[in-house]
Amino acid sequence: MTSTIQSMASLRSQPEIELVVDTPQNSSSTTQIKRSLTAIFARRIKQSLSALLTRFHAGYFRISLSLGGQALLWKTLIGPTDDRSILRDALHRFHPTAFLVLWSFALFTLVLLSLLYILRCLFYFKMVKAEFLHQVGVNYLFAPWISWLLLLQSASIVTPKTTSYLVLWWFFAVPVVALDVKIYGQWFTKGRKFLSTVANPTSHISVIGNLVGVQAAATMGWKESTVCLFSLGMVHYLVLLVTLYRRFSGSDRIPAMLRPVFFLFFAAPSVASLAW
To answer: How many Cα neighbours within 13 Å face the side chain of 219?
Structure first.
């Protein structure tokens, strides 16, 4: 009887001993699998982000530039006016939520592009420097600041003649002025031949940046400052226009992928008309 009880006790205790021995091995193997999967996943994300940042450039801000222009256009069309035409009455029937969705989407796109370019500046500064020294790439550095100025003008949460509007205007306008100083400095120091060599249709973006800044300043009531900046922008535009139209073979100055920038010949006068 005693031996039977001992054998039953030994049979009951044997599985418990096996579970105690096997459980650490299973947990350690599971932990190793999780660590390896995490390392592979992190490596894939790092490689994808690295490839994205190396291919990303300031030219992608054309997306936010177009969205910001559309947001400003819709705000102008649905705003209060004395025009009682059929088109204006039809546009005023749209719910303001549609404009809010468009403005929010433009803001989200611009914030995303700005974060990507900040990461590019941190990890691939040499590429950003090469872009700054390139005759086409430097003009696209105006695009993010123009986009922010357009969103500032079309924003319904920030009204002109307020401290927040003034601070944001200075924050977005100072980089435009700094880039202007860089471009004008090269023109004045390296002579007329340098201007005829580096001038291309993307140079109109710098003119658009000046005029958009003027338009944003005009909403704050700065009449003398806006007239001065507007005159400077128009002189820049006239010099650039004469330089480009005197060139007979201007299409070979930029890559074929950027040929659509010739439409900027119409964009600069349009923005000038709005600023005036």
So the answer is: 20
